[in-house]
Amino acid sequence: MIPYKKTFLFALLVFGLQACKKDLQDTNRNPNEAETAQPDYLLANAVKTAGDTYYSTGTTMDASLLFVQHWSKIQYTDADRYIFTNGSFEGGWRSFYTQSLADLNVLARLGDEQKNPNYKAAALTLRSWVFLLLTDAYGNIPYTEALDISKLTPKYDDQRTVYLGLLAELKTALATYNAAGPAIQGDPVFGGNLGRWSRFANALRLRIALRIADREPELARQAVAEVLAHPAGLPASETETARLPYFSSPNQNPVARIFETRDDYRISKTIVDRLKALNDPRLPVFANKTATATPEVYVGIPNGLTTGDAANLGFAKTSKPGDLFTKANAPAIILSWSESLFDRAEAAARGFSTENAASLYQQAITASLQYYGADAAAISTYLAQPAVQYDPGNFRKSIGEQKWLSLFGQGLEAYAEWRRLDYPQLAPAVAGVLDGKIPLRFIYPGTEQALNKTSYTDAVRRQGSDALTTRLWFDIK
């Protein structure tokens, strides 16, 4: 009888443990949280986290906007003098990978599982945008092995591999969008309009084609031809600018959130001087008047002053960036209609298309001026200036200088285009620490050296020193 008693007691124990396990599973369930990922929520969250990261302090306000001299700093000026640590650029890297890209990978998988190709196509399109932001800023990055749970130390792919991979991903996305397929929900950018998603994907392909144009002109030419031949076309009006809307607190623009409690930032003297020289109607939009009346009305701060020298210019006697960019509901611009027109103008100038470069250049400037409220007379006067007219002998200067103005506030994209086109020609920070140079990339986060050292070391060996002044593959001087 003893063996049977032991068997019976063992069975009771197993049954009890199973019951406890079930109780614990029930206890650990959150009744207010879906157990199956919802694609509409994933899409909305991925766009929101990417937009927040794009316009964050670490990637934009204390980095790219200062490097391209759209903004400057009046206090805590280390970033404006190019003083950074290996933790300075960690926030953007971590957020793009662990939040936006992680959500988009799941969204692409759910698109397959739920037989909704449009979710997958949107995921591939946004993935390409986020990876593009990362490689433009850092150079070699984890791409082909990124977010693969079997690869705890993913390799870094070189920029050529990343750019060509993104062109291919976007081509797949364009072939995947299906107007006859199920709708997509949770879309804060285009409200589920698949035609606009396709045109956005084409505009991204055009952007990337120009990134590689100096290194791989024939591949760039091929990509441009595919974009221009695609039936979806490219953005055709301001309504098709890709933008993430923001609202009031707690869902306000991240720039507005910073301005609620801090007074670090002013508009750069570099861009104020340029706007004044051109009698540019965007000046009162890009800059606020000084709080204390001054003869100049709009006063920028030179980039890279010491904190003491900057503060001596006077908080009330210098101009903050315009309210349009710092209010709670200022949208995050992902890719504007004006940018798409500039890209078409450059493609034509390079001989990649038969379009009229000068006409598209004027259309791009017009689109930017109209967006900021300039009327027809002001636009006509502006375009007639010799300093604004298109120079076919130096398209880099014409497009580079005007694109720099039109991308005001879009730090990461303005930074990439300034490095690629080499215009406008900017003077380094007044009290900069890079021996008269402006940063050409973000340095890798220190956590990569600690947690992915072998791949990090290999990336640096192939790309060059992990320094702010290392020139990236796409950036040919």
Automatic annotation (TrEMBL):
Keywords: Lipoprotein. InterPro entries: SusD-like_2 (IPR041662), TPR-like_helical_dom_sf (IPR011990). It comes from Pedobacter yulinensis. The keyword ATP-binding does not apply. PROSITE patterns: PROKAR_LIPOPROTEIN. It comes from the Bacteria. Pfam families: SusD-like_2. This is SusD/RagB family nutrient-binding outer membrane lipoprotein.
